[in-house]
Design brief:
Layout lengths: L2 H20 L1 E10 L10 E4 L4 E4 L5 E8 L2 E7 L6 E6 L5 E2 L2 E3 L9 E4 L2 E4 L7 E5 L11 H4 L7 E4 L10 E4 L12 E4 L2 E2 L28 E7 L2 H4 L10 E6 L5 E15 L9 H16 L5 E3 L8 E3 L7 H5 L3 E13 L3 E13 L6 E14 L4 E15 L10 H7 L21 H7 L1 E20 L2 E20 L12 E24 L3 E24 L14 E25 L3 E12 L8 E12 L12 E15 L11 E4 L9 E5 L8 E14 L4 E13 L2 E5 L8 E5 L2 E17 L5 E18 L6 E3 L3 E3 L7 E4 L2 E4 L3 H6 L12 E3 L14 E4 L5 E11 L2 E11 L2 E4 L2 H4 L45 E3 L2 E12 L2 H6 L4 E15 L20 E2 L7 E10 L1
Parallel strand pairs: 1-7, 1-8, 14-17, 19-20, 49-53
Antiparallel strand pairs: 1-4, 2-3, 2-5, 5-6, 9-10, 11-16, 12-13, 14-15, 16-17, 18-21, 18-54, 21-22, 22-23, 23-24, 24-25, 25-26, 26-27, 27-28, 28-29, 29-30, 30-31, 31-32, 32-35, 33-34, 35-36, 36-39, 37-38, 39-40, 40-47, 41-42, 42-43, 43-46, 44-45, 47-48, 48-51, 49-50, 51-52, 52-54
Length: about 1000
């Protein structure tokens, strides 16, 4: 072929291509509100067939360029509005297409993230609770878990304490397990993440452990979905019995760069402080106590009272220990993000700094977050992407809860007759360790570094058929340091003590899916996904401890004279899975969904290595039936039903089914091993069968919408440590024994009371209520289990009910003492009378019964949002009703005249011969009648209504902000935990000293309360 021929061929090709190159077109237009005519900035304009899109600017305008000249389907989406689709013909060049969107009060057109895919809200047949972060974007949120509190029916979030950075308990439709964990599975951008507490110094800090989830940045979150029923969650198989929380982070969209900046600063204060006795009142109670017990008068007295006292209190001493320990503490957050993109590349980049000091010295939390989310369309059919976040966190910890070495706990207990300092400036040696000294001298710190992300490739094989592969990594590094001073607290006898420990936790996830979406004859729609995944989980730990520090100024192990212990460990477990979901919809009215997952886990025995978890659900959109077309009362009516099976394998250890040997059994400087665990090859996962029926309906042209669900969850094969004969060399074996049941109702109501049609005032209310009834139906040999202070697991009762004696008032006269069942030989008038339940004439352990229930009758949230021109006001109420609290603080604060602990003002109404009608028992050293035994005396109503958030904001007018180059500008004032209405006598009714345990709930024992927070903030968009 000569050169002329080649040139001729190229010329022909260029001439043929010229019309194609010339046939490029554009689509532009404006997106507005159909009712008000106002432009809608930030709306998404998308041509799905080309995977091309753009966002509207501040004036609601968009422009799609380099579009092939053809007929295209253009789709407009905007949060809070119904999606709109239109066919636009651009064969003649540039076309103008304006869109007027109608408000979607029910959110039926919004896209909901489900397992391994998305669905339109109107077609979701399972029970899925959704939270859009724009609804709470101005609420200061330390963690992602805080965002869920009171916002979704059936999801109860409990902040066990006010310790910054501490773990939060989340229960989706109640507790389904005793020892295998009750937390939901968290999945971020499709990747299951590490969760739990990996601290190696946690054992000395009570129940307020840390959690890996505190590293997640709420500012990066776009939406949160909670999969509540088995139909929605079964696609996650063996880890879904407690629900699944799907978190989707923000992504960029085509258009000019958008810069968003937000910041707030505030202060935190304690509130509802418990009132304790002052020095004079304390001396009076204890003198009375010693006199009643031993006949010794004036045991306590002041140095200058001209009386020879056994204990001489320094003149003028009256220490308010709570006032000395509690403080105002700052909280601040600064966040900036940049997003945007071209027709091929889209990006979201963010950085956040969060700082929260505790209201008690020694507590605090700092976090730095960075994120990059990228999407790149390499070819028309191939999209590549990555999500990467980097987090550095620092948690300052101090002992709390069940301890005599915590600054807050001791501030409640230490008497007011003891000063803070000696005359030489050293710490006074108080009854328990000096609270002020503990907060200032001891240190505990958890430093985290976390890389969380995934990279993926998606290839469109054909219209409606897409292949996707991803690789996920969650690398969590935790460095713990503990220092106990030689001059105050736990380690004074050993010259100080310290520990340094490291935990390295790695989760690698491989995943591939094939998704499909096809419609036939405009009647039959089939969507779904099939895929497989493999997880590898590795945990490495090491630690070293030492003692004998030179003085309080040397605080690291290099200064320790004695290295007392050291250890290191490595553990690994894997999970291999196959899964699928198929949705079939007929005529946009009837939808059937089926999920199947098979999990293989290395944690279980050879005979039960694999588990099968199916589910099915159905949806009937009754509102679309022809017989509903003539009515105008209902604007939506749907009926849902589902059934499925899920599993649970959390919290049992990686080798629970195997017989183990352990090193460290050394003798005479020779290494040795010994059996460490019995084998159980039959061990398998807990299994939860769940049935759900629900309905969604709306009235009055979508002004009032309801969602109702009823569910039954039955869990079998509970993972428990059952007793074994001691002749085996062990006392227990992890086995599948026991059953449990949860059932309840969930109701969500959304009302648009004022839409702003006649005035500029808009008023929206949202109410959600959930109730769960729990019952333990079977245990090993049906033997009850006692744990905590007064918690009990018993067949026929809710999990963790309170168990103890029943009081019957006070003895008022000696005759009442003599005529009652025998309690103690020293029982006297003024002591508590306990009921003889079995009628044997003696008060013994056989006279105990169930005395309380930590689980509420119902809980939920109520949010009201008002908008008037540029102003907005949001009032969010959280409520819990019908639960009991065991106030274990009162075991000491109400032991009048015993232990030398201080007492609350309740002691002023104690029984004396001069006050025979008192409500409180007498003061008597040693508590001879055992008035402080576990009884209903310490059971209190834990119900509360809390003004959780109150926010007043103002959006600056558009003509003002554009003058300064802003896209948007908002300032606001916010109050969190503004006031709590409750009958509980403690600091905070939302409390649990045992932290995130499955059984011990609702017990208060010197737990740090939540703070009231007042903040001011600003949001700017460029």
């Amino acid at each position: 072929m000569n050169i002329k021929t080649i040139i001729a061929i190229l010329s022909v090709l260029l001439l043929a291509a010229a019309p194609v190159l010339a046939r490029q077109a554009a689509i532009s237009g404006t997106v507005t509100d159909a009712r008000t005519g106002e432009t809608l900035p930030g709306a998404t304009v998308l041509i799905e067939a080309l995977q091309r899109g753009a966002s509207t600017d501040l004036q609601g305008r968009y422009n799609l360029t380099n579009i092939p000249a053809d007929v295209h389907t253009v789709r407009i989406t905007y949060v809070g509005y119904k999606n709109q689709t239109r066919v636009v013909d651009v064969t003649g060049g540039t076309a103008v297409a304006d869109f007027a969107l109608e408000e979607d009060f029910l959110g039926l057109d919004e896209v909901v993230v489900v397992g391994y895919g998305t669905e339109q809200r109107a077609n979701v047949s399972g029970s899925v609770g959704s939270l859009r972060m724009e609804s709470i974007e101005s609420v200061p949120l330390p963690t992602v878990e805080n965002a869920l509190q009171g916002r979704i029916a059936g999801v109860r979030v409990t902040q066990n304490s006010g310790a910054p950075g501490s773990a939060i308990s989340i229960r989706v439709r109640g507790s389904s397990s005793i020892s295998a964990g009750n937390d939901p599975l968290y999945v971020i951008d499709g990747v299951p993440v590490n969760q739990g507490n990996f601290s190696q110094i946690d054992a000395t800090f009570g129940g307020q452990g840390i959690n890996t989830l505190s590293d997640l940045n709420p500012d990066d979150v776009e939406s949160i979905e909670v999969l509540k029923d088995a139909s929605a969650a079964a696609i996650y198989g063996s880890r879904a019995s407690n629900g699944v929380v799907l978190i989707t982070t923000k992504r960029g969209s085509e258009g000019a760069p958008r810069i968003d900046f937000s910041a707030y600063y505030g202060t935190q204060h304690d509130y509802n402080r418990v009132n304790y006795l002052n020095a004079d009142q304390y001396i009076e109670v204890y003198n009375e106590s010693i006199l009643n017990a031993f006949g010794l008068p004036d045991y306590f007295g002041y140095e200058d009272d001209d009386t020879a006292n056994f204990v001489e209190v320094p003149a003028g001493t009256d220490t308010d220990w709570l006032d000395e320990v509690l403080r105002a503490a700052p909280i601040a957050n600064t966040s900036i993000s940049v997003s945007g993109g071209t027709d091929r590349t889209r990006y979201f980049v963010s950085g956040t700094s969060f700082i929260q000091d505790g209201i008690v010295r020694g507590f605090g939390y700092e976090r730095l977050n960075g994120r990059i989310n990228l999407d790149y369309q390499a070819f028309n059919n191939l999209t590549l992407g990555t999500n990467i976040s980097l987090t550095r966190g620092v948690i300052e910890r101090s002992r709390s809860d069940n301890t005599i070495y915590g600054p807050f706990a001791n501030a409640n207990a230490v008497p007011p007759v003891e000063p803070i300092y000696n005359e030489d400036g050293s710490y006074f040696n108080t009854l328990y360790a000096n609270p002020v000294g503990l907060g200032r001298e001891n240190e505990a710190e958890e430093r985290t570094l976390r890389i969380l992300g995934n990279t993926f490739a998606s290839y469109r094989l054909a219209d409606g058929l897409e292949l996707r592969g991803s690789l996920g990594l969650d690398q969590y590094t935790l460095r713990s340091r503990l220092y106990d001073s030689p001059i105050v607290g736990l380690a004074t006898g050993t010259g100080g003590a310290g520990t340094a420990a490291n935990s390295f936790v790695t989760k690698i996830t491989y995943e591939s899916t094939l998704s499909f979406n096809r419609t036939y004859r405009d009647l039959h729609s089939v969507t779904g996904v099939v895929g497989g995944s493999y997880e590898d989980n590795v945990t490495e730990t090491n630690s070293v401890s030492g003692s004998q520090f030179p003085n309080e100024f040397f605080r690291y192990l290099t200064s320790a004279a004695t290295i007392s212990s050291g250890s290191s460990a490595y553990t690994e477990w894997t999970l291999a899975s196959l899964f699928s979901r198929v949705n079939y919809t007929f005529n946009d009215r009837y939808t059937l969904t089926m999920n199947v997952r098979t999990d293989g886990s290395s944690r279980f025995g050879e005979d039960n290595r694999y588990g099968f978890f199916p589910s099915a659900s159905a949806l009937w959109r009754i509102i679309d039936e022809p017989f509903m077309s003539r009515q105008e009362f209902l604007s939506d009516l749907r009926l849902r039903a589902s059934y499925g099976i899920t599993g649970n394998q959390f919290g049992i250890g990686n080798f629970a089914s195997r017989g183990l040997w352990a090193g460290g059994s050394n003798y005479n400087d020779q290494p040795g091993t010994a059996p460490a665990q019995l084998a159980n090859p039959d061990l398998k996962w807990e299994t939860t069968n769940q049935f759900n029926i629900g309905t969604d309906f709306a009235l009055f042209n979508q002004r009032l919408a309801f969602t109702f669900d009823y569910f039954i969850k039955k869990t079998d094969d509970l993972l428990l440590n059952r007793p074994v004969p001691r002749s085996t060399g062990f006392t227990s074996l992890t086995s599948n024994v026991g059953s449990m049941e949860n059932r309840g109702y969930e109701v969500s109501v959304r009302a648009h009371i004022l839409r702003g049609s006649l005035t500029d005032l808009r008023w929206t209310s949202e109410l959600n209520i959930g109730t769960t009834q729990n019952e333990v139906t079977r245990l090993y040999q049906d033997e009850p289990i006692n744990t905590g202070f007064a918690s009990r697991i018993e067949v026929g009762q809710p999990l963790g009910v309170f168990y103890g004696y029943v009081t019957d008032g006070l003895f008022r006269t000696p005759d009442e003492v003599n005529s009652h069942a025998f309690q103690d030989q020293d029982t006297s008038p003024g002591d508590i009378r306990f009921r003889d339940l079995n009628g044997d004439g003696f008060i013994t352990g056989l006279d105990r019964q169930i005395i309380g229930n930590p689980w509420p009758d119902f809980s939920g949230g109520f949010n009201n949002t008002f908008q008037f021109r540029g102003f907005d006001l949001s009032v969010f109420l959280e409520f819990v009703y019908g639960n009991d609290i065991f106030n274990a603080n009162r075991l000491y604060t109400d032991a009048y005249g015993t232990f030398f602990d201080n007492h609350t003002k309740r002691a002023l109404d104690r029984w004396t011969p001069d006050n025979p009608d008192a409500s409180e028992p007498r003061a008597a050293w040693g508590d001879p009648n055992f008035n402080t035994r576990n009884s209903d005396r310490f059971i209190e109503d834990g119900s509360y209504l809390r003004i959780k958030n109150l926010i007043l904001g103002y959006n600056l007018p558009g003509e003002t902000i554009t003058r300064f180059g802003f896209r948007s500008a908002r300032i606001y004032l916010q109050a969190q935990n503004l006031h709590t209405f409750t009958n509980y006598s403690g600091f905070d009714p939302e409390v649990n000293y045992a932290g995130n345990t499955g059984v011990v709930r609702g017990t208060d024992f010197y737990t740090l309360p939540q703070a009231r927070t007042l903040t001011a903030g600003i949001n700017l968009g460029f």
